TrEMBL record:
Keyword Signal: yes
A GO molecular-function annotation: calcium ion binding
Domain EF-hand positions: 58-93, 135-162
Pfam families: EF-hand_5
Organism: Paroceanicella profunda
Biased composition, class Gly residues, residue ranges: 24-37
Protein name (database record): EF-hand domain-containing protein
Annotated signal peptide: 1-22
InterPro entries, alphabetized: EF-hand-dom_pair, EF_Hand_1_Ca_BS, EF_hand_dom, EF_hand_pair_protein_CML-like
PANTHER family in UniProt: EF-HAND CALCIUM-BINDING DOMAIN CONTAINING PROTEIN (PTHR10891)
Amino acid sequence: MKTPLSATLALLVALSPLAAGAASSGGAGPQGHGPSGHGPAMFMKMDADGDGTVTRAEVDAFRKARFDAADANHDGEITRDELVASMTQRLEQERLDREKRRAEGMADRMMARADGNGDGVISAGEPPATFEDMMFRRFDTDGDGTISAQEAEAGQRMMHHHGGPRGGHDGPGPMRHGFADPRPAE
């Protein structure tokens, strides 16, 4: 059974993260953008004409658009189910946006390491050292091109003792104590 909430209550619940983000003085949330990390992004969404200010008309239009988007059956009321669906969709989009930004950052770092000639592409002539290549060099302690059972066991112990294969010089990985492979990459 669908129980309609009052339009005002539904609107307040739906827009409360907006109010918290916009009212924040910043610094408390992700990237310093208030509790939810959405203050500047929400401001930009409300600033429909892009003039750097938000008018009452822009706020009202934004609020109406958000309400209409949440009111899936367009009956002028938002039910709990509609509110959950709307919030879930918005949270999923935010997650996808975060993952895209993360992937872009990872790609930038990989390009910086692997693009030897700086032309913006990785060609077959400049293959990056893969994680597997690095681990092979690290585990093959005698440099004979093979990893013996003893070398594999010692490498696993070293990785376990130092927090895994990641972490950098200051993190919980093997680089923390200078365990970088001393041999040049092939």
